[in-house]
Amino acid sequence: MSNSSTVSSPLFDVRVDRGIAVLRVFGKAYLHSHATEYARILAKLREQGVARFILDLSSCDYISSEGISNVTRSWKSFCDEGKGRMAVVVPNDPANEVRNLFDVIGISPILGNALQPTVEAAVNCLLEPPQDKGLA
């Protein structure tokens, strides 16, 4: 993906291509500081007219409660309020703690096919026309 975004971050690699912003977490944890930065980045990208987002958590083995709140709040905003589309990348691996947490607390079924195992799958999901209700 080419980086056409003017948004930079010390906590995320931010790339925009074909109108899709990919926010990849640097490091293995999504903490309070990430949650705050994530909100700032989304606001900036929305100002630039970006309406499709991928949050790439594939390198993470921990997500804070604020991170979970960010994911669900963003998804609700995009899906229920029709403000865009979103996908979340979490490996489909039973050893991945973020995936396990999403499954245990019930986020996985809520996100449905917006939860993807790779960035490539997430991009393909967002390039497809939206279904009835949801993100992809």
Keywords:
7 strands; five-stranded mixed sheet; Transcription Regulator spoIIAA; 5 helices; 136 residues; alpha/beta; single chain; two-stranded parallel sheet
Kindly describe this structure.
With 136 residues, the chain is α/β, with parallel strands linked by helices. It has one domain (12-127): STAS domain (Transcription Regulator spoIIAA, 2-Layer Sandwich), CATH 3.30.750. The protein is 40% helix and 21% strand. The protein contains 5 helices and 7 strands. It has helices spanning 32-47, 65-80, 97-104, 107-111, 119-127; strands at 12-17, 20-25, 29-30, 52-56, 62-63, 85-89, 115-116. A 5-stranded mixed beta sheet has the order 1-2-4-6-7, with helices on both faces. It has a two-stranded parallel sheet with strand order 3-5. The model has no long low-confidence stretch (mean pLDDT 87).
Number of strand segments: 7
Q: What structural class is derived from the secondary structure elements?
A: alpha/beta
What name goes with the CATH superfamily? STAS domain
Task: Output the helix-strand order.
Answer: EEEHEEHEHHEH
The overall average pLDDT, rounded, is 87
Indicate the low-confidence ranges by residue numbers. Answer: none
Name of the CATH class: Alpha Beta
Report how far the terminal alpha carbons are from each other: 20 Å
| Oligomerization category of the chains in this entry | single chain
In angstroms, what is the radius of gyration?
Answer: 13 Å
Total count of helical runs of at least 4 residues: 5
Largest sheet: 5 strands, mixed
Number of discrete domains = 1
CATH-defined topology: Transcription Regulator spoIIAA
* CATH architecture descriptor text: 2-Layer Sandwich
Helix amount:
25-40%
Shape: globular
Please state roughly what percent of the residues sit in beta strands, choosing from under 5%, 5-15%, 15-25%, 25-35%, 35-45% or over 45%.
15-25%
Strand order of the largest sheet: 1-2-4-6-7
